[in-house]
Design goal:
The complex is a heterodimer.
Chain A: H1 4-82, H2 86-108, H3 113-141, H4 145-150, H5 156-296, H6 303-342, E1 347-350, H7 352-362, H8 364-369, E2 373-376, E3 382-385, H9 386-402, E4 411-419, E5 422-429, H10 460-470, E6 474-480, E7 484-492
Parallel strand pairs in A: 2-4
Antiparallel strand pairs in A: 1-3, 4-5, 5-7, 6-7
Helix pairs in contact in A: 1-2, 1-3, 1-5, 2-3, 3-5, 5-6, 7-9, 9-10
Chain B: E1 8-12, H1 16-28, E2 35-38, H2 41-50, E3 61-65, H3 74-82, E4 92-96, H4 101-110, E5 114-117, H5 122-137
Parallel strand pairs in B: 1-2, 1-3, 3-4, 4-5
Helix pairs in contact in B: 1-5
The chains are: A alpha+beta, B alpha/beta.
């Protein structure tokens, strides 16, 4: 009955534990993937940012190229019209800025062949214009301004500027397209990131909910088991005290019965013994008379009569005597038991270590004779009847000394421990042990176990059990033949008088 | 020894065997007084209190009393004797198998003069009865109604 709940609870708990571990692993996995995705997204974002920056730089360079191209064209026109040397400074400046900008553009657009082609075209156009510009300046300086002016409408520099403008516009458009594409991509990866985070969040939430549910259920089951256990425990105490109360009642009844029976058995026994003695006395008278008679008349001597008077009658009387004496001993034993049962118990606090020490000291000589040693372990104190406890324990220790295993030094150990509201005292020996079929029998009156090679009437353990019951206790034995026995006396911590 | 009337021994004992053994051993001790034997309490009380030759009306007596009787406890008989005006000085010897301390005390409290436990061992039994016989032979028993 007590083992049933644990048997069914164990597999369920195991399954629950498996699920719990699985859920926790899942949660950990989700967390790890979330961290992974975050790192990936971070890298992605940084990459994207760099590319956007790159595009912006390219755009700026294109703008610069376009602006300078326009400025150079404007300055050329101005120079042609006014021949003022201040326009020459613009040329010089653009001669350094434009090639540098183009070179930079070339490196930046290395990854884009279309843009590279366009940069190459721009460079070519710049070269054409620069050559034309050098020619124009030379013409103006040499005073042929008119020649330069006439060629203006059809000169290659103007055409180069137009074409530069167109290519720059194309390039800008291309870069804008790239920027838009990169923005869209970033948007998409952001969305993926959000989706992944949402998924992980849902997963984590589910894991947490699952774990919480299992823990809650587990805790509930645990506390239910705890309550059940507590109830069983208190039930057990109730059962024990009920049982000991029953035993006390039964014990008291048996002792009253034993007292009456043993007294009533004594009466006929007095007669049997008395009249046997009278019979013997009468036989002696007859024997004396016959002896005289035969002496006076030897012929009347009959061997049968002599045999009857001198042998048969004494033999019969002898058997009657020994039997009645044995019966008398048994009746006295019962009387002693029942008288012990009528003794008034006086509970008092007992120092158990000292009490057992006294018992060991009393039995010291007998233990030494039998080659036995007595050990005293932990002994919790108790409130009970001193005489009864002394009798029980000394009886048990005495038995342990008495029934040792030949060829092995006997070690008797006495120890105790608290179990709930009760105290259990164990008397443990390594003696000859008791066969399992005798475990109950040894507590019965006049019953003994094993080889009947030691003196005794079979009263000790019956007495011990009767005393244990009176003290509201129980006595049990566990034993293996040839290995030893343990007698456990379990008593209430405090003896309460019921009589 | 001015008293000339012989002392009757009244034995209340339900066990015929015990009664016979007691009588034999009393005789062996040299006591020849009349022994009147009753096996139950009712007839014994009737003799003690109402018989014309009984101790209540006539003559001194000594009571040998067993406690385990079929119709009543010997203690009741003891109480009745010791509570009676004329019988209370009659010596009562309780002779029984009961050796319970409480019973013995009660008997002495009620006025029992001697309490003897019947030993199962016959030698001790015979010895006890013979000593009782010796005791009886030197014992002074008051006349019924003495001092009234």
């Amino acid at each position: 009955m007590t083992s049933e709940p644990t048997d069914t609870a164990r597999p369920a708990t195991g399954l629950r534990m498996h699920i719990l571990v699985g859920l926790l692993a899942l949660g950990l996995l989700a967390l790890a993937s979330a961290v992974g995705v975050a790192i990936w997204a971070q890298q992605r974002a940084a990459q994207n940012g760099a590319r956007v920056e790159h595009t912006l730089a390219v755009q700026e360079l294109i703008q610069r190229v376009a602006t300078y191209s326009e400025r150079v064209e404007t300055a050329r026109r101005g120079y042609l019209l006014s021949a003022e040397p201040r326009f020459l400074a613009v040329f010089d400046r653009s001669a350094t800025v434009l090639p540098a900008a183009l070179a930079r553009l070339e490196t930046l657009t290395r990854d884009n062949p279309a843009q590279r082609r366009r940069v190459a075209a721009l460079r070519q156009l710049d070269d054409v214009r620069t050559a034309d510009l050098v020619r124009t300046v030379a013409l103006v300086r040499s005073g042929q301004r008119a020649v330069a002016m006439t060629g203006f409408a059809s000169d290659p520099a103007t055409d180069a500027t137009f074409r530069t403008r167109a290519i720059a516009a194309e390039m800008l458009a291309e870069e804008r397209r790239l920027l838009a594409a990169r923005n869209a991509e970033q948007q998409r990866s952001l969305w993926v990131l959000n989706a992944v985070f949402a998924l992980v969040a849902v997963l984590l939430l589910a894991v947490v909910a699952g774990v919480a549910m299992i823990l809650l259920r587990y805790t509930r089951a645990l506390s239910a088991t705890g309550r059940q256990l507590a109830r069983l425990n208190s039930d057990l105490e109730g059962v024990v005290s009920e049982r000991t109360a029953e035993l006390q009642r039964a014990n008291a009844e048996i002792q009253r019965f034993a007292y009456i029976v043993s007294h009533d058995l004594r009466s006929p026994l007095v007669n049997v013994m008395g009249f046997t003695a009278e019979l013997d006395a009468a036989r002696k008278t007859i024997a004396d008379h016959l002896a005289k008679e035969f002496e006076r008349d030897p012929d009347s001597r009959s061997p049968e009569v002599m045999l009857a008077v001198e042998e048969d009658l004494p033999e019969a009387i002898g058997f009657i005597r020994t039997s009645t004496q044995k019966m008398d001993r048994l009746i006295n034993a019962i009387l002693r038991l029942s008288r012990e049962g009528r003794r008034r118990l006086t509970p008092e606090p007992l120092a158990m270590r000292a009490l057992v020490g006294d018992i060991a000291a009393t039995l010291h000589q007998r233990a030494a004779d039998a080659g036995a040693t007595i050990e005293v372990g932990d002994m919790p104190d108790i409130v009970s009847d001193r005489v009864a406890i002394e009798q029980i324990l000394s009886n048990l220790v005495e038995n342990a000394i008495k029934y040792g295993k030949p060829g092995r030094p006997t070690i008797v150990r006495v120890e105790g421990r608290r179990i709930g509201t009760r105290i259990a005292y164990d008397v443990i020996d390594n003696g000859r042990g008791i066969e399992p079929r005798d475990h109950e029998r040894i507590f019965e009156l006049f019953r003994r176990s094993g080889a009947q090679d030691r003196p005794g009437e079979g009263i000790g353990l019956a007495h011990v059990r009767a005393l244990a019951y009176r003290l509201g206790g129980l006595i049990e034995v566990t034993s293996t033949l040839d290995e030893g026995s343990t007698f456990r006396l379990s008593l209430p911590h405090t003896l309460t008088q019921t009589e | 020894m001015t008293n000339q009337q012989p002392v009757n021994i009244v034995m209340v004992e339900d066990d015929e065997g015990h009664a016979r053994l007691i009588e034999k051993n009393i005789r062996r001790a040299g006591i020849s007084n009349t022994i009147r034997h009753f096996t139950d309490g009712t007839t014994a009380l009737d003799y003690l209190f109402h018989a014309p030759e009984g101790p209540a009306i006539n003559g001194p007596a000594l009571v040998l009393l067993d406690l385990n009787l079929p119709d009543m406890s010997g203690i009741d008989i003891l109480g009745r004797i010791k509570g009676h005006e004329r019988l209370k000085r009659t010596p009562v010897v309780v002779l029984t198998t009961t050796d319970d301390k409480v019973e013995i005390q009660r008997c002495y409290d009620l006025g029992c003069n001697v309490y003897i436990t019947k030993p199962v061992n016959y030698e001790s039994f015979a010895d006890a009865i013979r000593q009782l016989g010796l005791f009886l032979s030197v014992m002074q028993v008051p006349e019924a109604g003495d001092g009234d």
